[in-house]
Design a protein that fits this description.
The structure is a single chain. This protein is 65% helix and 11% strand. It is mostly helical. It has 2 domains: 124 residues, Diaminopimelate Epimerase, Chain A, domain 1 (Roll); 55 residues, no CATH class. The protein has a 3-stranded mixed β-sheet, sandwiched between helices. The longest helix is centred in the N-terminal third of the chain and has 22 residues. The two termini are 41 Å apart.
């Protein structure tokens, strides 16, 4: 997913603020470029690729001296490590389950941070989007989660993902915020 522009971020902030004016709940929207840098993924793949290069060299040139073969493998390791250090390639090489696990961990840490830093006894919902991992999660506090019908958050996430697949990440986030609005208004009307 492409990064959000300053205009997109301003529209998202305005939409979130509008929802919070109409409800007694706090809606936090967190959009991160990546949830982790996966520092060892590129190195592991580079080492594996260097071993493949060494095997190919051994098959193609069996008479090669050991030091020359080690030098070729070392150069291959360095080149692959530099190539796989580029974040788009590193994200591609990272297993999906690891990316989603890291994004989920960050989402829950962000939710906990918003609870700790927020006002007392405030109902909270977090819309978390990790662009690099293509991960979206809506987390609600226990009280809000118990009030909302089963599958509501999943439906909002599915609609968000449909917009993202159409190439409109910012519009997807805005649609998800708009979809959260009526749910929060129904279950947490504004204090009068």
């Amino acid at each position: 997913m492409p990064a959000l522009s300053a205009e997109d971020r301003a529209r998202i902030h305005a939409a979130k603020a509008a929802i919070e004016q109409r409800t007694a709940a706090e809606l936090a929207v967190v959009v991160v470029p990546v949830s982790d840098h996966y520092p060892f993924v590129g190195l592991v793949w580079a080492a594996a690729a260097a071993l493949v290069v060494a095997a190919i060299v051994a098959l193609v040139a069996p008479d090669l001296e050991l030091l020359e073969a080690l030098a070729i493998q070392a150069v291959a390791l360095v080149l692959f490590a530099l190539l796989f250090d580029w974040m788009p390639i590193r994200l591609f090489l990272t297993p999906r389950h690891l990316k989603h696990a890291r994004a989920r961990q960050l989402a829950h840490r962000e939710f906990a941070a918003h609870i700790i830093s927020g006002a007392v006894h405030r109902n909270r919902v977090l819309l978390f989007v990790s662009l690099g991992e293509r991960y979206v999660e809506i987390i609600a506090d226990r009280g809000t989660h118990a009030l909302v019908p089963e599958g509501t958050w999943d439906r909002i996430v599915a609609e968000f993902l449909a917009k993202v697949k159409a190439g409109a990440a910012a519009d997807g986030i805005l649609a998800a915020i708009a979809a959260c609005g009526p749910v929060l208004e129904e279950h947490h009307p504004p204090a009068r």
